[in-house]
Amino acid sequence: MSRLIVALLAAGALAALSSSAARAAGEDDMTRQAAMAARFAPFDGVTGSEWEPAFEFPTFRSAAVGEVDSSPFMLQPGAYRVVVLCNCAKMEVALFQPDGKEALPDRSNEQAAMYALDVPSAGQFVVGVQMQDCPEERCDYAFKTYRKKP
Question: For the chain, how far is it from start to end, CA to CA, in angstroms?
Fold first, then answer.
């Protein structure tokens, strides 16, 4: 076999391997996201029939220990609940309102926080998270926003 054919075959094999690895990583991401999404089920039940998800899916993110990560989202006027969960041992979380002020959580512990918001006018909110203790290189977190039905 010529060296060119061997090199092309090797390159094809490497591409197939990296493609398989990318698929596996994507499947792992989907599995982790599904597991995190399932953790919102108790909150789905607690919010009751007068509440609905404000967005189709939770927002999924990840951050390294010590890294500050933030995710902006828009809310229209109304009443909301925002739930933030992580798979780490300890995180610090903050929810900033459009005026830059930090909203105080109704409930929080080292792995979760829940906020109740009365939004008088449309604006951008920001969830900010800093992972404090995590056994993995990057720890997943997610937040889900519920809106009171009109």
Answer: 72
